[in-house]
Amino acid sequence: MSSTPDTARRVFAQHVPFVPTHYQCFDAARMLAESVVGTEPEVTCVIGIASGGTSPARVMADYLKVPFHTVTARHNASDAAFQQATGTVEVLLPEALPGRFTGTVLLVDDITGTGATFAAVTDALRARFADGAAVMTAALFRNRGCPLNPDRWAWTVNDWVVFPWERPHHGLTQPVPALRRVNAR
């Protein structure tokens, strides 16, 4: 378990969720993968944080031609929209996960709201990192209120995001702008 300070709050300005398309998510994952080519040490595997990070992580692993793994992390009380994170993250590492990681391990999630999930997963994996191994984080979306930015992200938003792999939102939504470039910390 890991916690973030109580001051880490997601920002929901308009209370109208963003709704990216499958194509936008696929294209963003590809652009994020392109942005890490040439990283030192080289990316040796991609780990998708289930469930939202699984689809983009799979695209990125395929693009980079490296192994794909998943871990489960959860800190939202439910799947309901516009909720603040609890700050406590539960991480479950599957038995099939390698016992040792070398190079750069790329952790991927669909959105980072506070940074707590990336921090908790990194902490849970730390004992498996060989000397010289590094962690890089990537997310399709970063909430504007996020105090711990990922290493790479596609969009910064100020509202809830409903992903194509989630239940559709019934009500007003707003489109995601075209992605021009990947953001880097």
General description of the model:
- With 185 residues, the protein is an alpha/beta fold.
- The chain has a single domain (11-184), classed as 3-Layer(aba) Sandwich (Rossmann fold).
- It has helices spanning 22-36, 54-64, 116-125, and strands at residues 2-3, 43-50, 68-74, 88-92, 104-112, 134-143, 152-157, 183-184.
- Strands 1-4-3-2-5-6-7-8 form an eight-stranded mixed sheet, with helices on both faces.
- It starts with a strand and ends with a strand.
SSE topology sketch:
Layout lengths: L1 E2 L18 H15 L6 E8 L3 H11 L3 E7 L13 E5 L11 E9 L3 H10 L8 E10 L8 E6 L25 E2 L1
Parallel strand pairs: 2-3, 2-5, 5-6, 6-7
Antiparallel strand pairs: 1-4, 3-4, 7-8
State the helical fraction.
Answer: 10-25%
Identify low-pLDDT runs.
1-7
What's the number of helices?
A: 3
The largest sheet has its strands arranged as 1-4-3-2-5-6-7-8
- What characteristic shape results from the CA principal axes? globular
**Level-1 CATH class name:** Alpha Beta
- The proportion of strand residues reads 25-35%
Count the E strands: 8
Q: What is the succession of H and E elements?
A: EHEHEEEHEEE
- In angstroms, what is the radius of gyration? 16 Å
Assigned CATH architecture: 3-Layer(aba) Sandwich
Supply the number of structural domains: 1
Structural class: alpha/beta
